[in-house]
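so i finally got all the pieces together for this one. its two components total, 669 residues if u count the protein bits. some of the lines might not be protein, just check the labels. i wanna see the whole assembly predicted at once instead of chain by chain like last time, that was a mess tbh
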Amino acid sequence: MNLLDVKNLTVSFDTPDGQVHAVSGIDFTLEEGDALAIVGESGSGKTQTVMALMGLLAENGTASGNAWFRGEDLMAMDAQELNRHRGTDIAMIFQDPMTSLNPYLNIEKQMTEVLMHHQDLSHREATEHAIEMLRAVRIPDPEQRIRQYPHEFSGGMRQRVMVAMGLLCEPDILIADEPTTALDVTVQAQISQLMAELRRQSRTAIVLITHDLGVVAGLCDRVLVMYAGEVVEYGTVEQIYYSPQHPYTQGLLDSVPRLDDVEDQSLHAIPGNPPNLLSLPKGCSFRSRCSKAFDACREKPALTELEGGQLARCHLVNRS
Amino acid sequence: MKSATGTEAVLRVQDLAVHFQVHKGGLMSNKISVLKAVDGISFDLAAGETLGVVGESGCGKSTLARAILGLIRPQRGRVLWLGENLTGLDDEALRKKRKELQIVFQDPLASLNPRMTVGDIIAEPLKTFYPKFAKVQVEERVRGMMKMVGLLPNQINRYPHEFSGGQCQRIGIARALVLNPRLIICDEPVSALDVSIQAQIVNLLKDLQKKLRLSLIFIAHDLSVVKHISDRVMVMYLGKAMEIARQGALYRKPLHPYTSALVKAVPVPDPEIARQQPDTGLTGDMPSPFEPPQGCVFHTRCPFVVKRCKVEVPPLRRMENDDWVACHCAEELDLTIRRVAVRKRNQDE
């Protein structure tokens, strides 16, 4: 049995301008100790996918499909049942470390609350465990710092606190939504390294959500590329980076600025803009931005399985 | 000091310093601390040259941009624009100068007035500086600008929220260019954009710069973004310049340990290389700018620190080829970046 088995997950929102299909039927699985990246531009549905799993969609959002976590369907649970899993079995780290910590409570209060609620620890035991976790994410003087408030920490420190909080109950799955996007490069490097280490030490499975294929390469085993609410490509990091099949994946890779490439080369951009989900073109949704589009693209391509289990949603893979 | 291209500098920044006085402590406390946001920055910029300015949050790069434009009054130093000292001008004289010096801001949506149409936003500088222009003339110019930055002129009556982040940044660029400026300062123009869109904006700025022979100051927190657009790059840390060097040299063989850490921190989109990517070598966090370290401001995080660094401030010194560095040990350190061969991607083409 897979740790997590997501089947035909769909998310839509009722807006004044009509119904928006943010996620249209995606599947993926996660094993123990796996690290999966979900990659795509703003509006591709990558965040809404995991928000639906966590039962955190906005009020105008509805989700359907199944998400089997150890055999139980998360999508069929009410808030109370979900609360047994949220924070303990499945934890989430959000993009902005400042707005996701409560500015009125010190770190101790915020960290021990989870433990006392989920694991019935006494206040003292919880504090001790929290200090241990802060030490694990390399916060200096954790005994002192735990009594401080979020504003007394730097951005990188705050994100480390978020990682520590995510790992408090030793979750089976840690979902990280753009965990390093708001951070400086050197801090980003530290947090990525920290997550890679924690992953080696525990059996926690990681789901990393990002728009930047640069940060994925060193941390994840498998990559799911999303465009306009659909999976357009899926494969191991080697498959995705060394033989990407979908023109969108190729474009995403080419647009990462590299320091190790040929001098003075101009940057490759994907032309056009991320799609407007309210007015998607018929056929392949990437068609209008694709340099390789041809007649067949007027019809929607299916997700096709290729050698080695790689998947791609593109008419080109059928042609060759 | 001649600038990199050998031509005479259009902009000379000399020992520029911006200090903020900040009330610290409780509500009733009168304690005032001084924050040295920019502390003695000097550089020259030639016509048509691009200077990249890179540093992490709090290093003073945005304050530097504002001080050059006179949006913040500096404590000390001079900003010479075509030989004239801007810091000596009064507000009205400075305002007139801004026809030649413009800025593009970081947050593309927040820097556009949501209640104005795109046409009005781009036309506003024209109406301010040339109130006598006829309406048709203004509209023609605005449509021309929109075309130049890759927007459709028939979208002139739309509002900012109808555009994506990348398009909003194009609007910001059109607004900055409409007065035919000679210098544009771009303050993190792509940081808020998707990676796939960042390249569009960088390439657009590069093209416009060539076409219009603009001087450009391009601010970013990440060395990878400025690489493709800069002639020279200045690396800042806690209000000071650590290194100013030609673009190619800086990435191959940095002179300052901080530059080397910034180069190593850029993630490589290649799993084999990324798994063995070296540590940045940096320890700890950036110190509080209220209490910058004695001596070299970088010494608390430097892997090569020696006794001298803790007491003596290293001056920005001229090295070979007009590269500049502020490090006592620059001659002894070999910070050459060793690259692993890149595995070719197989594509069915």
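The first strand of chain B starts at residue 9 and ends at 23.
The longest helix of chain B spans residues 195-212.
anyway lmk what u think
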